[in-house]
TrEMBL record:
It comes from Neogobius melanostomus. The chain crosses the membrane at residues 27-48, 63-85. Residues 92-225 form the Cytochrome oxidase subunit II copper A binding domain. The gene is COX2. Keywords: Copper, Electron transport, Magnesium, Membrane, Metal-binding, Mitochondrion, Mitochondrion inner membrane, Respiratory chain, Translocase, Transmembrane, Transmembrane helix, Transport. Its main location: mitochondrion. The lineage of its organism: Eukaryota, Metazoa, Chordata, Craniata, Vertebrata. It is found in: Mitochondrion inner membrane. This is Cytochrome c oxidase subunit 2. Belongs to the cytochrome c oxidase subunit 2 family.
Amino acid sequence: MAHPSQLGFQDAASPVMEELIHFHDHALMIVLLISTLVLYIIIAMVSTKLTNMYILDSQEVEIIWTILPAAILILIALPSLRILYLMDEISNPHLTIKAIGHQWYWSYEYTDYKEVAFDSYMIPTQDLNPGQFRLLEVDHRMVVPTEAPVRVLVTAEDVLHSWAVPALGVKMDAVPGRLNQTAFVASRPGVFYGQCSEICGANHSFMPIVVEAVPLKYFQDWSTLMLEDA
């Protein structure tokens, strides 16, 4: 989860998020180099009284500063497009979960287990146990198996919401009357926090998302227990 004074992204918990972090570092280095070069040129030009007529009106310079930005944009665009296609790739999911946004909570339906469905409400501050996080913990977590492709069908019952879990590299709009889908693979066990990322009304900031990734054996035990309770 995020922590105070954090400068970078949360630690990646899925292959897609790892790719996004690598792309961020790649783009940031390009931006840093461009900014440094531009700053150097500005300082050099304002700190001297000398001018070169061939720099002010040079065909070669015009060609360079036309071709160079185009090449830089290509270097940024190609890995960006690759990640976009990776994020849209959904192949043979092992589990499908339907996430439904409400004002102001989430409900989940495990389509492979017809009886497994529950609402997920934020735990009020006064009811938190020691170690739980304020405004982030819920009474029922979305439990998924690790190292297994999980498809999430996202929709809403009333207004626009957005289902987002930064550590998993997932953000999908929840639109009433429409089913959007996204997918992720949790590469390690853990508890990953997210929040509704579309302003949806007065309690928009009080409908967190908690995904708990556990090994397959424990997921099977959990699903069996949920079926028995149903």
